[in-house]
Give the backbone structure.
Amino acid sequence: MSSITVDSPTVSGSTLECDVSPSPDLRRFFTAEPFRVSYDRPLEDVPEGILVIPVLAQVCPVAWANGADVYVEEVDATFARALEDVQASLCAMHDFLEGGELYARRVTAQEPSVDEADAADADSALLFTGGVDSTCSYVRHREENPTLVSIRGWTITMDPADDQDWTHLRDRVTEFAAERDLDTAFIETNALSALDHAMLLAHYKRYVDGAWYSSVGHGLGLLGLCAPMAYARTIDDLYVAATHWDGIELEWGSRPDIDDNVRWTGTQCHHDAYELTRQERLDAIAEYVASDAPELELQTCNTRMDGNCGRCEKCYRTAVGLRLSGLEPTAHGYPFDESDYRELRTALEQGQWVLGQDERYMWEDIRERVRETDREPESAAEREFFEWLETADLNALVSESGPPLSHRVLRAGARNAPTPVYNAAYPAWKAMKTGLHRVRMGR
């Protein structure tokens, strides 16, 4: 029987560590590295049933993909029920997920009741990067003065080569928070190296539009990492900004029917701003810029963390969206001039970027905004671009981009290789896949 055993976490100051023992048939999905998560507050007073949540949030989707059961010493009762609800949502979304059971020796007490007076004074937190989605969520909830939470271990890895990127993100979030008298929380984890993400991708990429984590694991995974932090800081509400919006039917790992089900004793998670399209989120930001933050800069680049390159698809898309919301991109972090419209069109037509269905929806959102407004283009170049976008076959632009055939062949080989053969080939496979992984994650 396929199974995964999660040992009791050990705590040293503000860091927790946890060993995971998969059954032999599942070992290829793990690197044998213990799961580690570091916070910026001590964890000694956090109960074991909460401490284990970050690890369960990463491990359980892998178990569900293989019909495996998970065994743990202790778990928070509220989170155990949440896992059942998240499993049901993910299994309904992905046909290849088989499900599984969670078995615990001890289940901690039920979630305490909260009266109206306590609820009115509730503390909140928000996963924050400074991009369009999380900035919009801050704007929507700024009256709550949410703690801004940033995580290293997803798009910014624990590799020393990413140290500078993490410094840039911390500095930017710290400055944003200081200007608004907000608290920050910084979390660092090796979750994506304790899991063998390359092998997960090799096995399951054929079923998903993005990567394993983006298409399956990241809503539960990112929120679960926050559990000890939220408990230590008595956070009642934890927000994660929506990537997509109502009407988009994509198999994505962060959606209302996943994130809104994530909870543990004392904390309820929320998938935020799902009712707004990306362009409408930019509208909300534009209103905030006009009323409170004229010098606000966004950070959305796919290739840099110390500003925006202005040349990747996401930078171009954000700059165009800012224009449509009445903001000048150069005033908010994006080098952009009229000649860039031609460069953008050429890059899209030539398939220079790896695009997924979510990018198609986002360009459709931009096209709809152009159609529904009577805004005059600011230049002939802008007019030409929007005229082209009006008739462009966005489905073709997405289908003609994508990973090279060599990547797909290697993925199939890894999927079918015996574990010893795969382990020998792993370094080359990991190096090959890293570039695509970094481009496709995040919106």
